[in-house]
Amino acid sequence: MAEPAQPPPSTFGKPIDDGTTESPEVEEPASSKYQLNSFEDFRQYCIDANVALVRPKFLEELCRAGGVWPRRQEAEKMEGALYKPGPDDQFSFIGISHCWEAREHPDPFGFQLRTIVDALHYWKAANPEKYEDGDTYFFIDYMSLPQFLRNAEEEKDFQLAMQHMHFFYANSGADFCKSVWRLERLTPRSLKRWQLWQGRSIAVYSLAEGRVAEVPLKRLKSMVNGKCCSTCDDKCCNLHINDVMYLCRGWCRAEFEWAKPNTVDISRQATFLRCCWATYDAEFIRLSLPWTPEAFQQQLASEQLKFTHRSDMGPVVKLQELVFHQKVATMEEFQCNWLRLSEVEDLVKLLPRLQAVETFALMAAYLSSQQQVPLAKALAFHPTLRKVEIAHVQLTIPAVELLVSAPRLHRLEMLRLDACGLGDAGAKVVADAFVIHPALTELHLAFNGIGSAGAVALAHALPAIRCLEELNVRWNRIHSLGAVALANAANTLKRLDIRDNPIGAKGARALRCRSIDVESEVLHFNVDTSWLGFFRCILWQLFMRLFLSMVVLPMTCFRWRQRMFHVMTAKDGSRVRPAEPSESSEEVIQSGEANAAHRCQSDNASVATID
């Protein structure tokens, strides 16, 4: 038999993080033939490292039986438990980032198992096209990688897998990765007490007995300096609990950063929301900013992140820096929402480092007037942007003018400024900028309080942009005058969405004569020909207004909360910088190019707040 590996604290699939013990160094990743976002390289890596993925059906059966995860070695003997990729196989996976709640087993109470199965059912209902795939499997380190005690061959596979562990998280934006699910929440105390009262036990490898043995959960003991008692050693018969929070663990935090922004915490989704808001709840998942290498190292220096094995710190830091630069250099879509006030400045500094981004999306945030212009500059002078989506973010007219009037955005294909408080003045600013966006095909200005004056301005500018195919002005205040103007100028459009606007019978008749796809409940209820349709339309609009107010209420409350925070901190000057002298939009546009070039040369990014 090969020489035994190190005792449990240093040899699990992913080390626990309690900041106590030292262990042999994990090999630093060498320059590899494996590349991120390449399915062929990922598949070959799984084959070379002998990585096994877990079948969803097995997890469901294990959950129904009230069991816990088996080790990789035992799972291989269970029929239908694991899937090993072949050289010609086509598959996808979901990465699981979780805490090891005990040194000997990551999920001794089965809480993580039940959470994953529950989330799988939830997301299948919320997005069946994405998650009803029979070739989708899970990566769970305890079942996917060989565990203690390993023989020589298993140890070799384990070390190779550890060198490229980031592949299971940093590929979160690839087509073959459905998502990365985090389990930040630890097992609730009520569940622990219930299972302890039941006298349950779990199967773990016992070094003292040299085999997998059943150990009662009542043997779970807290550790001090890596030991549960003065006589604790490698052959201790107790289970050693680890209650360090997810975001305070070095490995967990690294996995979180590698996976951003395509990662979700499935442990905090309320059951009620899962049952009643399957399609709505997905919009309220916070997508925070990724940590820069400097921010990650600062957290390590302040000891806010803990590693069980301090020798792991160097390789993980290098992996974090490598993954960050690879992702920002290749990321084509960037999205963030529910952005806190303190993160706006970090976003402005991060944008120039996104060298290949083509789609930028920001939803539900409050930006002060001093923060809007720098963000608009960063977007307006970004050379690769093709799509800009900003929703539920109140913007000032100078910021809108700077954003839409920049000549560097001549490649812009889609612009969405929904619920940005534009009004007629903002609509006129957007209309005046049409001439410098010849490639624009979609324009969305929903829920902006635009009236007939703004609609007329848009209509006068439509002939200047012949590529525009879709115009969305839903949820505004456009009356018959604006509807008639849009109908007369909509010759090049393929689709006009003017729903939930009081366009009246005159506007309905003008739109009905056009050979374009018009979305309007006024046409649907035949307001121009029927009194009954007129009253039905009025009732429908009132209902939809009430419904929309309820839907956007959380976003509105979040913005007001951030605004109150800004006002309170501005009074004492402790967190918000003093307002800088205002500059006209023309001056801003002239100075924007130079400022953007200066920012591109800078390689510093401030620390983003912990999610």
From TrEMBL:
The chain crosses the membrane at residues 538-558. The lineage of its organism: Eukaryota, Sar, Alveolata, Dinophyceae, Suessiales. The keyword Transmembrane applies. InterPro entries: Leu-rich_rpt (IPR001611), LRR_dom_sf (IPR032675), RanGap (IPR027038). Keywords: GTPase activation, Leucine-rich repeat, Membrane, Repeat, Transmembrane, Transmembrane helix. Residues 1-10 have a biased composition (Pro residues). Pfam families: LRR_6. This is LRR and CARD domains-containing protein 3 (Nucleotide-binding oligomerization domain protein 3. Residues 602-611 have a biased composition (Polar residues).
